[in-house]
Structure formats: structure tokens, C-alpha cells
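User: Predict the structure for this protein chain, please.
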Amino acid sequence: METPRKKSSSAESYQGDLYRRMDEFRRQGILSDIILVVDNEEFPAHKSVLAASSEYFLSLFTSDMKEKQKLKVKLEGFKPLVMNDLLCYIYTGQAEITDENAKELVFAGDYLLIESLKKKGTFYLEDTLSPSNCLSVRAFSEKYVCDELKRKSESFILDNFVAVSKSEEFLCLGSSEIEKLISMDDLIVETEEQVYEAVISWVKHDIQKRKEDFARLLSKLRLGSMSKYYLAEYVENEELVSGNLECTKLLYKAMKSFAIFATQGKLTADICKIRRCLDSNIKAIVTIWGPGDELRSSTQCYVPSVNQWFNLAPMLIPRFSHGAVACEGFIYTVGGVSLNGHLSSMERYDYR
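Assistant: Here is the predicted structure, written as C-alpha cells:
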């Protein structure tokens, strides 16, 4: 059983040595029969190797096109800095992919019909997605038809919207791209206010040119799912809103939803539509009591749907015999008794 392995290993070693030797021939210009020209820089190569790795070169060198007889071929759209990486991959199947050359190698793989190189570059871009580059990567994936890269970059944008909205790439998006993004039901945020603040930041980045787009963008927000106190304190006092009749109408509609529609259960208007990530509330019973272990308060919640208790972060002040009320997404505890006597303080607890 060992003999086939030795033969296979020997064959692989021979092939690897052959590829490396041919790559050395390329670098030294030995027996080269074609020169690739990129921005007036010349790169010697071998037609047979290029044609074996690329359907583009195979067609170029075997068809009746004039390039068949030429000793030099000019490549448009390529950059000299990545040509050595590209040719190294063509000759050896290996290339060091970095932030600087990844997109260029994907472009080269797409242009020259080298699918394995294109995939290698897209895998690198998938692994290095970040809030600062995901928008440009998504645009790049659309241009070069990288379906999996597009899917992953879009998911990354939706899952990390708040961080993405603070990036330079976000501030440089066009109004139609912003509109499409903030209209998505699958956007992941903690509150709708975060989407509003992202829109405000985008508009104020170039307010003279973008303020005319604000009313249209504001209409895509779910104002009815924002806090009525936030609407009154921040949105109503925003000059972009108060100085635009369409915006003030939208604000009035949102405030009306709190005053009338919410009490009647008629939240059918688009302005009251809730994003999926904010429409997944879990019914739970929260208990706050203390002092517990180490003289700290104990905060727990019971979820009936799974019949299970969960520990939450403790309140700042251990207390018992206190009053508690849930209001506008917070729990307020008032008064009560601690180890040091009666309390006259109040604490607001964010159970999210």
C-alpha cells in the first residue's frame, strides 16, 4: 500500500519543482515568447503556460485574431503592482493575497477567465469584511458577479448597520442607496432611533446638496416605532424637520399614532411598521430584590414560553420592599429599604 503513495508524492514533488522552474524562467525572461504590457511596463511570459491556465489567453493565442502573431499583448485595466502576483499564480497556483491586491486579483480572475483565482480573492474579501469596507465590497461584488461575496457583504451590512453607518463609505453613498438600505425590514438595530441618527449624519455630511433628499428618506423610517419622548425632544427640534412641511406632516402622523392608533390597536400605517429585529419581544416576568449574595441585588427574569429563569445584570442599589414599574422600555424602582435603612432614591433599569 505504500508504493502508490510514494509515486503520488514523487509526482507532486516533480510537478511542484517544474512549476517553480518555469516561474523562474518567466522572471528571468528565459525562452519567453510573449510579453504582456501593462501601463508601459513589460512582463515576459510563455504562451503555453498562459493558455493552459486561462481560457482568455487560449482563445487569444489560437484564434485568427491579430494578437495571435504578436510578440506583445497589451492588457487594459490591469495594474503593474499586481502583475507579478497574477503571473506567480498562473505559473505556480500560489499567490499571497492582501488588502492591497485582493480586488485586483478578483478582477484579473474575472477578466482572464481564471475561476480559481477569482474564488481565492473573493474568499479573502469575505474573511476581511469590516464596517469600514463592506459597502465598497458589496458594490465590487455586484460589478464582477461574485454572488456569494455579495450575499455575505449584504448580511454583514444588515447585521452591523450602526457601525457601518459611522463609516466614511456610508457617508459617501448616494441617496438612492441610503433609501434602499434604510427601507429594509431585516436591518439589525437596537432602536429605530439609530436609523434616524444615521440618516441625519448622512444628510449633514453634505447638507446643501442632500437636504432636499431628507423628506423622502424620513418617510422610509419607522417613526411610529420610535420613542414618543425622542420624537418630541430631538426629532421635533431638528431644523431639517421643522423647516420642511413634508417632514412636519410625517412627525405629526407619528405622534398621532401614539395618541390615537396605538390605543385602538390600528398600527397598519407604514410609519408604524416595525422592523423584524424590533418585533421579537419575549414576554417575561422580571424580579428585582436584594440584598442578595455579596450584598448585591438579584435581578432575574422568568420566561414562560421556555419555563426557565435567567440571571440579569443587578441593579446598582440593593433594595427590597420597593415600588417598581415598567415604562417606555425601562424598569423604574422607587424607594424601599436597604441594609442602611429606608431609601428615597429611584433607579432606571434597562432590561434589554
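The first helix runs from residue 2 to 28.
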